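Give me structure tokens for this 495-residue protein.
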Amino acid sequence: MSNKVGISGFSLFLPPYRVQLQRWCDWTGNSWPKTRAVVGNSFRVVGADHNVYTMAANAVLRLIRDHEIDPRTVGFIGLGTESGTDNATSGAIIVRGLVDQVLEKWGIPAISREVEAPEVKQACLGGMFAVKGALRYLQTDGVGRRAIVVTSDIAEYARGSTGEPTQGAGAVAMLLEADPKLLAIDVRRAASTTLYRALDFRKPFLRYLGQARSEDQRVRDVPVFNGKYSTACYVDETVASLDAFFRKSKVGRAGYLRDVAAVFMHRPYSRMPVTAWTTAYLFALAQDGEGGRSELSRYAAAAGVDLDALMAETKSDPQLLQRALQGDLVDDPYPLMTEVAKAFRDTPTYADVVEKKFTLGTSAMMEMGNLYSAALPGWLASGLEEGARIGTDLAGKEILLIGYGSGDASETMPAEVVPGWEKAAAKSKVADALASPIDLDKDQYEALHEGRKAPGLGVPAFSGFVVDHIGTSTASAYQDAGIEFYRHVETGVRA
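Here you go.
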């Protein structure tokens, strides 16, 4: 057995209800060309039948089945989510409990009792933190065992808000082990950065006060956010974690970013990772000595930006938190660099450094919407599956994973694509997860968004876990008020 650990497989679950953004633009009067370019094509919506735990359990069951996992070999199950509905119990324990019920039906041994089952919360980065924890487990007290990490989230925003088109829901499960079949991840070179940002994107409990109980009994998980400030934080933290990564790796910055085979980042909407990666490349040039500054100077000249002023900006602290606390929500932490980025986009180098790095999996992600903690794993699964399908030469090459969670935290993680990766990538079955959507009309979408029964909406064909009912008892002898109970359906028809 080698000392390499990493990812051997993915499995996805998406709820069936879909909002097509072109139709949404017709309903709301928004620009479809702009929405498509910035956000994507569609997003998924949960109904009363699903929450983060049912979606996660469905993804894990698919992972066990499609990758022929012996559950007795699993010693770690981690859940990354920011949409959990229990403030005490780890959702990973709920997920393993649901999965065990079906394994027994299938005649498969249950997951071992000797399992770590943490839930990790850090906005959209919780899943990647869980992955890092699983990799550390496999290299220490979990040697010889396997790990499963599942990311599951529901992204909801108020209707009429700027976040409304960036909604979504779904789960991605990952198998991690020694001698991985897809990606070998070098945890020693991974880099984390964190910084308190106060109010870029939050879910304070106080927002629940006064919320009336809806027909579906689900609390609406609408965040408090400041969109442009959040984007500024995302860009700044991505630059910071890459800076930490380069200091650990001791490689030429811009050269590495040019040579890395592919990049997968947290993706709340289509444009955001592109903006952050472009900024990071220009920052790398500024820090790469005379050669880097020479290239940067050409872009600065084309943009009409003074190079000395630009270099000073790259060394500055934008003071995003301090200014926000004074009521100044910064839209752009590096305005000169933004002007230079516009000029850079018109060069052939931009296509090589940015566009080609983001090609794999992009089409699938345009259909998934924002999956919060599952967005990066979903893009990674989609990209590797597409690469295997079209014959992309990735074996032995390094790719880069960059996660982000509002608040703020960022994680840069290098991964080597292992020889023979194509067979494991093909098992992700992204097309199956996207298949047979039920497209909502305006009234149906608004009803589900508000927790009401959607008019004329049929029961989808489905096999998997659903929310059966939510407890209401507050009696001293038996209390279950607010606790969700589940059941597994095989035919898709609920009693």
